[in-house]
Amino acid sequence: DTAVSQTPKYLVTQMGNDKSIKCEQNLGHDTMYWYKQDSKKFLKIMFSYNNKELIINETVPNRFSPKSPDKAHLNLHINSLELGDSAVYFCASSRDRGTERNEQFFGPGTRLTVL
Amino acid sequence: GQQLNQSPQSMFIQEGEDVSMNCTSSSIFNTWLWYKQEPGEGPVLLIALYKAGELTSNGRLTAQFGITRKDSFLNISASIPSDVGIYFCAGQLGGSNYKLTFGKGTLLTVNP
């Protein structure tokens, strides 16, 4: 019973390609996130969606575009991939942002390698 | 932006020893969270703290929310080999701002 799942687990691609990573949560949460973990293991938020609405958009290049078809899914599409995009991308979810206790639960990650 | 200073950066201990790590911030957070990440996996929530001064335990783990709201520590008692991993603190302002700001992690190695 996976709570937050991501596909694929590994993604190896050439520079310049366009790729997507999918995320699904079955926790009934209203808010979903994308984080990037660099080679030094530093975790930084990229985006957050609440009920399919974009809430947080950190200073991420326009080549990254999140899409939320429904509140259980938040996909990440990346155009014109660059070497520096190589990282592990984590999806997370939490209950509605208005609740006091807003713990975030993470997926297993997608390791993206750009050659 | 807000930054969290997490220390130590790494620890190498013997099985059975107690471990302590902490995070400090230049500004206030209203929620502190501690996560553990094992190789090839996502961060797993260990303990969540919501009130200044709060002390919470989860098995052999104990965490405290500093009274100033600018710090938190995590203790692990009687460490075992499966405690190996990277431990992250994370702060959250809460309310309409629920973005998590992460520390840089503490890599824990336990020698059997």
The H/E string of chain A reads: EEEEEEEEEEE
Q: Main β-sheet of chain A, in a few words? A: 7 strands, mixed
Radius of gyration of chain A: 13 Å
Helical content band of chain A:
under 10%
Low-pLDDT sequence parts of chain B: none
Helix content of chain B: under 10%
**Large-scale geometry of chain A:** globular
Task: Kindly state the number of beta strands of chain B.
Answer: 11
Describe this structure in words.
The complex is a heterodimer of chains A (115) and B (112). Chain A contains no helices and 11 strands. Chain A is an all-beta fold. In chain A, the strands form 2 sheets. In chain A, strands 2, 4, 5, 6, 9, 10 and 11 form a 7-stranded mixed sheet that branches. In chain A, strands 1-3-8-7 form a 4-stranded antiparallel sheet, with no helix packed on it. In chain A, β5 and β6 form a beta hairpin. The model of chain A has no long low-confidence stretch (mean pLDDT 91). By secondary structure, chain B is mostly beta strands. In chain B, the strands form 2 sheets. In chain B, strands 2, 4, 5, 9, 10 and 11 form a 6-stranded mixed sheet that branches. A 5-stranded antiparallel sheet of chain B has the order 1-3-8-7-6, with no helix packed on it. In chain B, a hairpin with a 2-residue loop joins β6 and β7. The mean pLDDT of chain B is 93. Classes of the chains: A mainly beta (115), B mainly beta (112).
